[in-house]
Every structure is written in C-alpha cells, then in structure tokens.
Design brief:
Elements (H helix, E strand, L loop, with lengths): L9 E8 L10 H16 L8 E4 L15 H8 L5 E4 L8 H11 L5 E9 H4 L31 H16 L3 H15 L13 H6 L2 E3 L2 E2 L8 E10 L11 E7 L18 H10 L11 E3 L5 H10 L8 H5 L18 H5 L3 H14 L12 E6 L6 E6 L1
Helix pairs in contact: 6-9, 8-9
C-alpha cells in the first residue's frame, strides 16, 4: 500500500443514529439533529469542535422525503463555526459525502467533519399519491434517462429488473438463490431493535410475494423509512483524545470507467460497482479474504449480488452458488452480510445505515448480532452509474 494514500489521514471518530421507523411524523431536521448530536457525543466532542459539515445528497428535490435538510440549515440549527462544508448529489454513491470529508481533512481544511444522511420517505408517502422516480415530461428527465420513459421505465425497480434477468440468464442464478439476500436480511433484522421489519420470513413467503418487476418481487425491494445517520470524520492524529477508539479507513473506491448510464454499460451483468471495487482493492494490501463483515447496498437484492461479485467475494457468475442456502452470508458464515437487516428489512437509510452497522460491528457493540472478532469490514453504496465503497479496520 502506498504511504501517500489519503485514507490514512482520517478516522471515523463517532457515529449517531436517530429513531428509525415507518411514518414517524417527525421532520427531517428533527431526526438529523438527533443523529448529529449523538455522533458528536459518541466521539467525546462538542459542537465547538466540529469545523466541517457535509451531506448527501444536499438540499435537492428528487422525490418527497428523499434529501433531508440542507447543510446551511443544519449548520444554523447547530450554530457550527465551519472551516469547510460541502453538499452535492453526484459522486460515488452516498459514500461520496464521506470521501469528500476525508479529502477535506487530508488537505488540512478542517479537523472534525460531521457527515449526515437523512430520509423521511415513509412519512412523505402517507399522502394520496406517490411520485415516480422520473418525471412524466420526458424533457425534464436527466438526459441519459430520457430513453427509458417511452418504455415505461419510470422507477428504480424497472431499471434493476433487466440486470437481474440478464444475470440469471447468463449464469443460471435462480430466484430461490436470490431470495437468500432478503431472507438473510430479515433474520438479522430480527436481532436489531431499530429494524423496520422484524417478523420471520420464509422462502415460501418470498416466492409467493407479488411480483413488482420480473424477476424482482416485493421482498427484493427496500423499505421506505424515516431516519437519520451521522458519522464524524476526524484527523487521524487526534485519535488519542477521542472518547472511543476510532475506526480506521484502509481504502476508498470511487472509480467510474463505464458509461454513466443505467442501460448502456458494455457488460450488463456489471455496474459501476465493479469499477469502484477494483479501485478500492488497488489502494490496499488487504484482500477479500480478510473481510469479516460486509454492509453491501441492497436497495434491490440484485445490487447486493453484483456487489458480492464486484468485491471478489465470489467469482464471475458464481454469486448464485455462493449465496445458495444462505449459510455463507449468515452471521456465523464466511461473510456475514448486512448484519443489521440492511435496507430490505432494516429500512432504506441508504449506505449510511450500512456504514453505521459495520462501524458498530468493528467496535464490538452489536449486541445480539455481533460477528465474533470482526476486524475488517467493507461498506458499499449505490448501483447503476453511482457506486462507491470503503474498507474499514478496527
């Protein structure tokens, strides 16, 4: 590993998470402040110590409840005195905000960056109608998505289902095998008091669930939720002054080599995840076999399949056999996966929910679902043309 890697300059010094649930009826700012103040206290810092602030996606409108409060609103509410701040929608998945914070710390712009992600999608969907992911007016859609609208592809699940169909066609993965992503998440969610769905789920439950976009059924789709997660990225040299031992960041993956599109990638059994994962492994001496716990993006179950392959936990086309039966991805398996329930059962907190869970595991604080001797963890975010990943060590 090159000594100049910027990742070595920063650590994760604190984490915080608000109440998580369905239709909580709380504002995004209320949830954000709960998570941010929790992270600051967790690190043993005060608001006066926070001199950087960053969020994903920033104050933008995608759909109701998606973006949470903007950085200026949070800065004002917490009365922070900032040396650096940033918010932006694009980048390597939701983890782009964390990477931006790491770069700011490495450049010497600030010492402690508060990074947060907030959603109130569940409460926002209580009204009589739900917005599609794309506008009905083609001219208002992003350029690369305008070609999808004439075919009725107006929501994320219709962008994902062709990938699942293609992967199954090329490599023989079955729905029974794909089901293990959802079943594993539900088993783990039962051990997480914050998870949205904790009732048992069987393979029969999965197979009989209504189809949303073939071959993806209801349980292949993540769960809209309300909640906020915050982490603090601090300069590595402040570690001795922190309340708890920080988590080190061994490597970040942010690459995008293919076309920035959901449907025009050269190999439609891959996504930008494959570019980001290869980039991450090139920045460390650690290997896939060193990883003890994984939080892999599961906005839809097929995304987790592609991340498992991209991160080289399974060979090309071999994820079906790797997850078959669910034992290898269980809490006591070769690769404990989405140990807090993930987005499929824990709730759609995006990659920040996975980041919070993996840090909790590496600290040894995951009561009831703790992975024994967890020392190395990986967190992955995004799908399609948006992807990023982090390799963390205790």
């Amino acid at each position: 590993m090159r000594a100049s890697n910027f990742e070595a300059d920063s650590v994760i010094s604190g984490i915080g998470q608000s109440q998580v649930g369905r239709r909580l009826g709380r504002s995004g700012l209320d949830l954000t402040l709960e998570a941010c103040l929790g992270a600051i206290a967790d690190a043993g810092l005060t608001r006066d110590d926070i001199d950087g602030l960053c969020s994903w996606p920033g104050e933008v409108y995608v759909s109701d409840g998606f973006s949470g409060p903007g950085v200026p609103q949070v800065q004002d509410a917490l009365r922070l005195k900032l040396q650096w701040f940033h918010a932006g929608l694009e980048g390597p998945g939701q983890l782009g905000a964390v990477v931006n914070a790491m770069l700011a710390v490495s450049a010497g712009l600030c010492r402690h960056v508060l990074v947060y992600r907030t959603v109130t999608e569940s409460t926002s969907q209580m009204g009589p109608s739900r917005a599609s992911a794309l506008p009905s007016d083609t001219s208002k859609a992003p350029a690369y998505q305008q070609w999808m609208l004439p075919y009725g592809s107006i929501s994320s699940v219709t962008w994902m289902s062709p990938y699942a169909t293609r992967y199954m066609h090329e490599y023989g993965m079955t729905r029974e095998q794909l089901a293990q992503i959802a079943l594993n998440g539900r088993r783990n969610a039962a051990l997480n008091p914050k998870a949205v769905f904790r009732d048992p789920m069987t393979l029969d439950d999965y197979m009989s669930a209504r189809m949303i976009a073939t071959p993806l059924c209801l349980f292949d789709c993540d769960v809209p939720a309300d909640g906020s997660t915050a982490v603090i990225i601090s300069r590595a040299d402040v570690a001795p002054d922190l309340r708890v031992k920080p988590i080190n960041i061994a490597a970040a993956g942010t690459a995008l080599h293919g076309r920035p599109s959901w449907d025009q990638r050269e190999d439609l059994t891959t996504m930008a995840a494959h570019d980001a994962a290869a980039h991450m492994w090139s920045r460390t001496d650690l290997k896939p076999s060193d990883v003890n716990v994984a939080g892999l993006y599961d906005g839809f179950s097929i995304l987790t399949v592609l991340w498992l392959e991209a991160l080289r936990f399974a060979g090309k086309g071999e994820v079906g056999s790797f997850i078959d039966g669910g034992d290898r991805i269980g809490l006591h398996g070769d690769l404990p996966l989405n140990t807090g329930g993930g987005q499929l059962s824990g709730g759609r907190l995006h990659a920040f929910g996975h980041l919070y869970e993996v840090v909790t595991q590496l600290r040894g604080d995951a009561d009831g679902r703790q992975v024994v001797d967890a020392e190395v963890g990986v967190v992955a975010a995004g799908g399609g043309p948006l992807a990023g990943c982090l390799l963390l060590t205790r």
